[in-house]
Design a protein that fits this description.
Layout (H helix, E strand, L loop, with lengths): L3 H12 L2 H16 L5 H15 L9 H11 L6 H14 L15 H13 L6 H14 L8 H14 L6 H16 L17 H4 L27 H20 L9 H12 L7 H4 L4 H19 L7 H24 L2 H17 L9 H10 L8 H16 L3 H13 L1 H4 L3 H6 L1 H10 L1 H15 L5 H9 L1 H13 L17 H8 L4 H7 L12 H6 L7 H21 L5 H14 L9 H19 L3 H4 L1 H8 L9 H14 L10 H18 L13 H17 L4 H14 L5 H4 L4 H19 L2 H8 L3 H4 L1 H5 L5 H18 L3
């Protein structure tokens, strides 16, 4: 969420038209051509960057302006801040055919870094990625002190490795591995010299001090990213950057095939290897080939980071850095153990101790995810109670940390990325969906697409009904989580909830023991197998419906429902399909009263009800009693018009012996009477009656279904004809327009047309049955392709007969 000032600036930037942008580019071009690139130039470039980055689509800049931006980026005398802005603007334009930057090794390393960032943003259109990679490698091969500083080029090399792994040849990969070993293991333990010193400063004051640990103690082991000091030397900066790219490089340069081993196969391999290996000594590691030596040094580096993370940091920023480095260290160890199982034996003791240390620390919760990934990845060889690890992971973390957006994203990503490894633990994941939905309810905009991808793995026949209830109640869960944070005994310094919304009555209800059962059900950590009617809770939490976070969650639910039904239809049997259909009908009038929520959900429920009927046409006969009960009331008809229309259409389509031999004339008659009564009720024009305004599509659907049912039970044809005649007459009444609300005369005309068409069909019962209830053969593709039995031919014949019959009728 941006501040009001930031939102205003973004809005202004998006509203700028092309003509205004063209004039602004002309002004910037004049400023860039001046000898003195002063504050006006800096301010204008900042504004230009805001304009082109504030929209999703590319802004077209004048070619002269683009050329000058590229020229300014290549000027050796240009201030660094201006060059950074020029590079940022050119990156926002990429990919673009108007850019003509090239890699020039004569530029200083800062410029090369900026130029390379633009070239990589272009993609590999003209082999720019390969050219950049080869340029950095030439700098790596050069050990001349006056050469470009690798401090600014190594991050570019890391990006090249990810984008185009095939850029490096074997000898170049070996060289990079050797240099990484040197930077990781042999960085200086003395702090860097000050950039400048005073004439009066003493030689003692200019002497660099030793590197220290996070707790202030002097470092006695090799330098790492967690070592501290006031100033750093070049090789120390390279040490930090080498660790940043270490995992990507290990994955690129590791043995082929090990990363894709099946979990069981890898566990067997690890188990057999652990039975015969022993820890490799560091002295023997010096004799290893470069890649094996790099793995050995990487292992030592990660071990040292884990040891350094035990030290108590003196500053909060250092404490956060410790946790971030722990996450990366565990991920690197996981890669090492997958590539060489001998590292597993040496890693287990420290990782088990680390897990025991961080599992009780809420501040270190993000470290638990890579640890769980490690134990899951290495199976039985890790000799760890994986079930206990995952019970803790899926039970406590979402319940306590749902309000952390970064953790929420990482947690869902962890679930998605490791589905292939869960195996026997997939049941634990599926039963934990109520807890996972807490992340979704609180962070719905950024996590919706992630959950759409995750839902197929979470959906199970045993929990499908409870999951559907939970999805429909997601906005209610958001409101309850908001209240939980508001009532917490130790609120955070910056409130996580909407402070503009005051809901004292909701807070009182949240603390009221009478409602604790409902609130605890909503906040349950696991699937319980039972469902609760939350209507009393909806009434209590109605003041929270206007909360922005609740509104965002309500907007995400229709998308999630579509994903759920796409997944559940793959695993549902006949009984579950019936239960899902009943749930749709039952929940249609039982939804949290967020603005516009019911209308959006009803639209999805109506389409999914038809999908369920298509999947199992016999559903209409099997659920006849429930469908009759649903159609027997007009309460909330206007708000549920789409669902009512779908149910009426399904009855007309599937209540037939063609779809279910159990269909009887008695059932057809019962549905006819119920639909006749419903049509009569919704089309009454009595001023005293508080009846809902009925959309025309409901009326036309009712008339069509009644005609279909009459064609299957010909005793009903006189009643259907009389009803249709009345409807045609009714549409000519002046009050009909108001009855159909905003549809007015157009709706009345549609009803009249449909009534006339259906009346004409009923005058020839055999024709009506052929058109309204076609046989399976008629619906087959052959019937539409064969010139002798083509459906258009049949329809033309029917049309002639109908017209002839109509011509014989008295005027």
């Amino acid at each position: 969420m941006f501040s009001a000032g930031a939102e205003s600036l973004l809005h202004q930037a998006r509203e700028i038209q092309d003509e205004e942008l063209k004039k602004f580019c002309s002004r910037i071009s004049k400023l860039l051509q001046a000898e003195d690139l002063g504050p006006d130039t800096l301010d204008s470039l900042q504004r230009l960057f805001l304009i082109i980055s504030a929209t999703k689509y590319n802004r077209r800049l004048e070619k002269t302006c683009v050329d000058l931006l590229q020229a300014t980026l290549g000027l050796a005398t240009c201030p660094e801040q201006l060059q950074v802005l020029c590079a940022a603007i050119l990156r926002e334009m990429s990919p673009s055919d108007s850019l003509s930057l090239v890699w020039d090794h004569t530029q200083n390393s800062r410029q090369l870094n900026l130029v390379a960032s633009v070239l990589l943003a272009q993609g590999d259109r003209n082999e720019e990625v390969s050219a950049v990679g080869q340029g950095v490698l030439r700098a790596l091969e050069s050990r001349q002190p006056e050469g470009p500083s690798l401090r600014y080029l190594l991050p570019i090399m890391a990006k090249v490795v990810v984008l185009s792994p095939g850029t490096l040849q074997e000898d170049q990969a070996t060289l990079l591995s050797k240099r990484l070993v040197d930077w990781l293991r042999y960085a200086s333990l003395q702090q860097g010299l000050p950039h400048s010193s005073s004439f009066f400063s003493t030689p003692r004051a200019r002497q660099p001090g030793p590197i220290t640990e996070m707790d202030g103690a002097v470092a006695t082991d090799f330098f790492t990213v967690l070592s501290t000091g006031h100033r750093f030397t070049e090789d120390q900066w390279l040490n930090v950057q080498a660790f940043s790219m270490l995992r990507a490089w290990l994955l690129h340069s590791g043995p082929e095939g090990l990363g894709t081993l099946d979990t069981d196969d890898r566990s067997e391999q690890e188990g057999s290897t652990l039975s015969v290996i022993s820890a490799t000594s560091s002295s023997a590691g010096r004799l290893l080939p470069p890649r094996e030596r790099l793995r050995e040094v990487a292992f030592e580096y990660c071990q040292r980071l884990i040891e350094q993370s035990n030290r108590r940091a003196l500053r909060k920023g250092d404490s956060d850095l410790q946790k971030a480095c722990l996450v990366e260290a565990v991920l690197v160890l996981d890669v090492l153990c997958r590539q060489d199982p001998s590292f597993l034996y040496r890693s287990l003791s420290c990782l088990k101790a680390l897990h025991g240390r961080v599992r009780g620390d809420p501040a270190s919760v993000r470290v638990l995810l890579p640890l769980a990934r490690f134990f899951l990845s290495h199976g039985e060889a890790a000799a760890v109670d994986s079930e206990a690890v995952y019970q803790h992971l899926f039970t406590r973390i979402p319940l306590e940390q749902f309000h952390s957006p970064m953790l929420a994203f990482e947690f869902v990503q962890f679930c998605r990325d490791n589905l292939h490894l869960f195996g026997g633990h997939l049941g634990t994941l599926r039963l934990s969906f109520p807890n996972l939905f807490k992340f979704l309810a609180w962070n719905s905009p950024p996590l919706t697409s992630e959950f759409v991808a995750l839902l197929p793995a979470l959906v199970d026949a045993g929990t499908a009904l409870e999951m559907l209830h939970a999805l429909l109640d997601l906005p209610c869960l958001t409101a309850v989580l908001d209240l939980q944070l508001r009532s917490s005994p130790a609120p955070s310094e910056r409130p996580l909830w909407d402070t503009s919304l005051r809901a004292p009555s909701c807070l009182e209800a949240f603390r009221d023991p009478k409602f604790q059962g409902l609130f605890q059900y909503v906040l349950r950590p696991k699937a319980s197998g039972a469902t609760e009617r939350l209507v009393p809770l909806y009434q209590l939490l109605q003041p929270m419906a206007g909360c922005a976070r609740v509104a965002q969650c309500a907007e995400a639910v229709p998308t999630l429902l579509q994903a759920f039904f796409s997944a559940v239809t793959q695993v549902a049997d006949g009984a579950l399909i019936n239960q899902l259909a009943l749930l749709l009908l039952g929940r249609s009038d039982s939804l949290y009263p967020a603005p516009g929520y019911a209308a959006r959900v009803h639209s999805v429920l109506s389409s999914q009800f038809l999908a369920l009927c298509t999947l199992k046409p016999s559903l209409v006969v099997e659920l006849a009693r429930d469908l009759l009960e649903f159609l027997g009331s007009v309460n909330g008809l206007r708000s549920r018009a789409s669902l009512v229309t779908s149910v009426v259409w399904a009855v007309g389509e599937y209540l037939s012996v063609a779809y279910d031999r159990r269909c009887t004339v008695e059932q057809i008659n019962k549905f006819f009477e119920a639909l006749e009564a419903l049509l009569f009720e919704v089309t009454q024009c009595r001023p005293s009656a508080a009846l809902p305004r009925c959309p025309p599509k409901v009326v036309t659907a009712l008339m069509t279904t009644l005609t279909k049912l009459a064609s299957r039970s010909q005793d009903l044809i006189p009643r259907a004809s009389l009803l249709l005649s009345k409807m045609r007459t009714l549409t000519q009444s002046p009050a009909t327009g108001s009855m159909h609300g905003e549809h007015g005369e157009e709706g009345a005309e549609a009803i009249c047309t449909r009534a006339t068409e259906l009346l004409t069909l009923l005058k020839m019962p055999s024709v009506a049955q052929f058109v309204l209830t076609p046989s399976t053969e008629v619906c087959s593709p052959r019937y539409h392709r064969d010139v002798n039995t083509a459906l258009p031919l049949a329809l033309r014949t029917v049309s002639r007969l109908v017209e002839r019959e109509a011509g014989l009728l008295p005027g």
